[in-house]
């Protein structure tokens, strides 16, 4: 059986730590799903949340249930890649890095055997307001989809990226491609607009979580992302001809919901404000517009979303980068032992690096690399390998007790987007420094609490 969202949910839904169901009707447009997710987040609980009954944008009942939080913990991301939860630290990042360099050729499935073709909606029956799209933060201007888009570039490659869409009416929505971020999809759109032609686009609103983790892989423009996603699934991605373009544009056969459309050349509409990953509202701006041609979905389709500025959103930004950054640092600084992009930096803006320091200068050499590998990272903190970089309290302890302000802080000016800060919070090796308190390891390993506490 091919991997899809249903198979994954079936594997975790019997475990309350990973899965919760909301049976009472909720209204995403009135922030109710966001409030439930926020309450769980504040309680340090991050299960997948399945909303059985949801209102649609048009205020009627949605035919689709809604699911969120599939990426809310590193353990869930590990399970999506069939790793044990205890491998959710550096092992997960390195497995991600390994898979992003692998490829598995997709396979073609006849339309009649593709689950996503069980229901086909065309022409006047197309209505985006029947979806349970919602608002997430108080100033959000309207209902948004928050999953992935697919475009096909010159030469036939498929590019898959996370993109949000503001629903404008039954058939039209914005396509959030910012000129400052320069997603690959924007290059494809611009190439078509230069020739004054529409850009075919597909929106995927649900699939196995490994599909979306693969979409986050840091690949070059021109990479066939369908092949990369297959490596993350651990099996060939099944594709089927689209309704609009046939075999000229293949779509994921096992998706929950696929929206086919065209980006209208040179047309722009106002989008935002929208609460983004940084914890701040993205301001009003003009964005491209797509016209929906066809919607296809499974008979029992589930619509998937990602709650912006949540732990799942942060993990989708951090895990794809960590393994790649680690491997690149290792080439020039073999003493590196770990890389983590913490949630306090939205999984994108700050980076913690641990090193087994052997000489002065090791920390700075390792700490400079993340700036060169990610245009979003603004702060790098380097610590010794006796500090757990996944425990922010330990990182702050190292920064407060080990940082020498006179030589441990470097401001790097005139870099793209903004200046950067490198902090060396490692122990000095060229002068005396006290040893760290520890309980003897052999005693810690010998003592089991179950033997002493009832």
Question: Please, could you describe this protein's structure?
Answer:
By secondary structure, this protein is an alpha+beta fold. The protein folds into two domains: 307 residues, Electron Transport, Fmn-binding Protein, Chain A (Pnp Oxidase, Chain A, Roll), CATH 2.30.110.10; 92 residues, UbiD C-terminal domain-like (3-Layer(aba) Sandwich). The protein has eleven helices and 23 strands. The strands form six sheets. Strands 5, 7, 8, 10, 11, 14 and 17 form a seven-stranded antiparallel beta sheet that branches. The protein has a five-stranded mixed beta sheet with strand order 19-20-21-23-22, sandwiched between helices. It has a four-stranded mixed beta sheet with strand order 1-2-3-18, with no helix packed on it. Strand 15 and strand 16 form a beta hairpin. Helix 6 packs across helix 7 and helix 8 packs across helix 9. The longest helix is centred in the C-terminal third of the chain and has 22 residues.
Give a quick summary of the entry.
With 454 residues, the chain is α+β, with helices and mostly antiparallel strands. Helices cover 25% and strands 25% of the residues.
Provide the descriptors you would attach to this structure in a database record.
454 residues; alpha+beta; Pnp Oxidase, Chain A; UbiD C-terminal domain-like; 2 domains; seven-stranded antiparallel sheet; five-stranded mixed sheet; 25% strand
Instruction: State the CATH superfamily name of the largest domain.
Output: Electron Transport, Fmn-binding Protein, Chain A
**Structural classification:** alpha+beta
Report the average pLDDT across residues: 95
Catalogue the unreliable spans. none
- What overall geometry do the principal axes of the alpha carbons give? globular
Task: Estimate what percentage of residues fall within beta strands.
Answer: 15-25%
What fraction, in percent, of the residue positions are helical? 25-40%
